[in-house]
Amino acid sequence: MRVRRAALMIAGTTVMALWPARVLASGPGWLIAATPDPSGGLGSSLQAISCTSTTSCVAVEYYVASPGGSDLATLAERWNGYRWTLLPTVNPSNESQTELNGVACSSSSSCIAVGYYQVKGTNNILTLAEIWNGTTWTIQPTTNPGASQSKLEAVSCSSATACTAVGFYDDTNNDVLTLAQRWNGSGWTVQPMPSPSTTPGWELHGVSCATATSCTAVGRVINTMSTFADGAVAEGWNGSTWRVWPTAQPSGAKESILRGVSCTSATACTAVGTYDFGNDPRFALAEGLDGRSATVWATTTRDTQFDAVSCPAVTSCTAAGFSLGGVLAQRWNGGSWAVQPTSDPSGGAGDDLGGVSCTSTTWCMAVGAYGQVGHASATLAEGGSSWVTTQTSDLDGASDQRLNGVACTSASACTAVGDYTTSAGVVSTLAERWNGTAWTIKLPASPSGAQGSELNGVSCPSASACIAVGTYADSTGKILSLAERWNGTSWSLLHTVNPSGGTHIVLQAVSCAAATACSAVGSYKNGSGILVTLAEVWNGSTWSVQTTNPPSGAQQSIFLGVSCTATSACTAVGDYTSSSGALLTLAERWNGNTWALQSTPNPGGGTLSLLNSVSCTSATACMAVGASGTSPSVTLTEIWSGSAWAIKASPTVSGAQGSVLQGVSCTSASACNAVGDYNKTGTQTLIEHWNGQKWTVQPAPTPTDAQSSFLSAVTCASATQCMSAGHYADGSGAGFTLAEM
Fold first, then answer.
1. Which parts of 333-387 are beta strand (E)?
2. In order of start, what are the domains of the chain with their CATH numbers?
3. Sequence-separated (6 or more) residues with CB below 8 Å from residue 396
4. Is 656 strand, coil or helix?
5. pLDDT at 376
6. How many CA within 13 A on the CB side of residue 292?
7. Which residue has the higher pLDDT, 29 or 367?
8. Nearest CA to 78 among 103, 101, 97?
9. At residue 254, what are phi and psi to the nearest 5 degrees?
10. pLDDT (mean) for 400-412
11. Which of 494, 498, 549, 552 is nearest to 525 (CA)?
12. Confidence check: pLDDT of 39 > 90
């Protein structure tokens, strides 16, 4: 049924893909990425994370394995750029309580996780280390110097054969001593560390290795606990020995502790934790360490704590933790710390981010746990980047799921529509709703007796009022137009009007200037079997067909996109086949009374160009996007100035063998985002940004298990909040919905 053209015109061949088509942020904020809970609601937590790319992260800690919380089992989860999945771990055979507190990955298929376990039936606690080889976890023997207790709290690797894990142990005098173990690729060995001289002990909670011969560990000095006199401690390793590094304490502070550290070189480390003045409240603490001195970068926000930090550059660090109001993320720019907007799960209490990993200055992922009132804790993950995937919902038994259109009224209110194939092989309509945290499926109604149906576009004048359009095949197989309305609770069918004598009637896009003023466009075959443009208008109660004005002599014509800034100002775009057989761009303008043909340029006077989408911010400012050319195809963008259309150069990905822009959304004449795809060792998502002067390609994440991925539509609630929708196929060929924000 679907006729939308994804013009991947490769090596002189036009590939018309007839898809039944199927996002967390540095700067603007962080988004929650749903994580699985193996405990069945008994309780689970993620404390540490390591990312080698935006599409490969591993996070670890524990989950409650039996009611009552008496048994804890190791937990590991993996991020593939799109969703979190469980990585089955192994537990020592004689354990009763097991945790993984640190993880370090040198590649997507090589990770080391460390922690500890309690020997069943005893009070003995022993160190634990496990290695991930890309397929399975295996336990590696470690050394336990402690008389009764040895724990590993963190690990850092400069390569797969050079890792350092740190923690603490109890000696025979019950003094707490620092512990460091070194992995050389085949085994673990304990490293000698300085011992406290006048204090009951030291603990290490974080470590970072900038090179194979340079590591820094941080923690706390345990003084007299009754006086709250603990102090921050740091130790540095130079490839052969450990020595104590100077730390600093905020003026007047009574107690301080460092929980995490990140080093960009042997003499440039940022450590984070917390401090207080002998009683509540506590304050988040950050320090700069170089081995010779320490500089305090203390925050002054009450009831806050930093638990972890990641620095991809000297002047770019992200610290994560918690505050009285929920999770906490702050960013260091080399001169000051700034709070970043974060997200807390609905109903969450005691939310905390215990680990963070940044692969660049513009992308981070943090993990932790959140409390549920009246229930056990649950795992939590949040991510930030320019564009990130947000986990959509999938239908059980569906073999192919796609999102074709999306509309947002705010960053926390989006509606995406598309279709899926049922287990019986029937294509049916699909809709999902985004609430700022998660996507949920809200299945639309299907026409009675329909053999198949799909939704291609959606427009929402408010969060509780959306119109979606598409097409369906009736009981006789006739293809007819389809429209549905969302009232904030459910979807209902709207009776559309089909052109007299028309067949194969498809609505491709819709734009609503108001709840009672929507224009939908598409195409149909007239009595002569010629494909012609179609426009229908919704007045709040009924649909009516409008007369369009295709080019004279056109062999066929189609509308693929529409944008309305008022009831009397709409622009529709698409393509038409000329009398000579050339496929050319098409645009028409609605003035409240008639549709009028507009002259649009075609690159180099070419023979194959099309416009897939348009976005107008006023009657005199529109941006349309599509593709042109054949060897290979390239992206095409055109801008309307109020008097004429003009081509604006858009970049292509180096080495791409065909690229196309499918959707565009503008919040002003100088702020547009366009999405689509390009072919380069498989089809991949494409995002471009217009700043009023030029287009630039934006980093676009792709699920790691995707063999091909596509973005079909985009909508921007503001200049810094956009949502795109599409689909991807995995190695088995199964199709899944895809959203990037």
1. 337-339, 348-360, 363-372, 375-384
2. 6-24+395-740 (2.130.10.10), 31-384 (2.130.10.10)
3. none
4. coil
5. 59
6. 3
7. 367
8. 103
9. -95, -35
10. 86
11. 498
12. no
> How many Å apart are CA 589 and CA 340, to the nearest integer?
43
CA–CA distance from 667 to each of 3, 441, 563, 718 (Å)? 28, 27, 12, 6
565: left (phi over 0), alpha (psi -120 to 50) or beta: alpha
Higher model confidence: residue 237 or residue 582?
Answer: 237
Residue with tokens 């549920």: 372
Structure tokens at 147: 């008389």
Over 119-182, what HEC string results?
ECCCCCEEEEEEEECCCCEEEECCCCCCCCEEEEEEEEEEECCEEEEEEEEECCCCCEEEEEEE
Q: In what order do the strands lie in the sheet with 517-525?
A: 503-514, 517-525, 531-538, 543-546
Cα separations in angstroms, 539 against 414, 482, 515, 543, 654: 23, 16, 8, 7, 46
Tell me which long-range contacts 539-544 makes (C-beta under 8 A, separation of at least 24). Answer: 540/515, 540/516, 541/516, 542/495, 542/497, 543/483, 543/494, 543/495, 543/496, 543/497, 544/497
Tell me the residue type at 46: L
Cβ atoms 389, 685 nearer than 8 A: no
Percent of the chain with pLDDT over 70: 87
- Report which of residues 719 and 248 the model is more confident about: 248
Which pLDDT tens digit goes with each residue over 360-397? 887 788 888 877 545 456 777 776 655 656 666 666 66
Residue owning tokens 């301080």 = 256
pLDDT higher than threshold 90 for residue 199: no
Which residue type does 691 have? N
What's the residue count for the chain?
741
Distances (CA, A) of 436 to 399, 433, 439: 27, 9, 8
- Report how far residue 147's alpha carbon sits from residue 101's, in angstroms, rounded to the nearest whole number: 21
First CA to last CA across the chain, in angstroms?
A: 29
Per-residue pLDDT tens digits for 550-572: 998 899 999 999 999 999 999 99
Q: How confident is the model at residue 158 (pLDDT cuts 50, 70, 90)?
A: very high
Q: Above 90 in pLDDT, residue 331?
A: no
Are residues 679 and 11 in contact, defined by beta-carbon separation less than 8 angstroms?
no
What one-character DSSP code corresponds to residue 246? P
Beta bridge partners of 74: 62
| Residue indicated by tokens 């007796």 | 449
- CA angle, residues 98, 101, 105, in degrees to nearest 5: 120
Most confident of 380-384, 535-539, 677-681: 535-539
Cα–Cα nearest to 342, from 24, 81, 599: 24
Cis peptide leading into residue 88 (ω within 30°): no
pLDDT of amino acid 479: 93
Report the candidate in 353, 377, 351, 376 with the shortest Cα–Cα distance to residue 366: 353
The average pLDDT across 10-28 equals: 25
Q: Using CA atoms, how far apart are residues 479 and 474, in angstroms rounded to an integer?
A: 7
- Collect all residues with Cβ–Cβ distance below 8 Å to 650 and sequence separation of at least 6: 625, 634, 635, 636, 637, 661, 674, 688, 695
Mean pLDDT of the chain: 85
Nearest CA-CA partner of 627 in 1, 21, 2, 17? 17
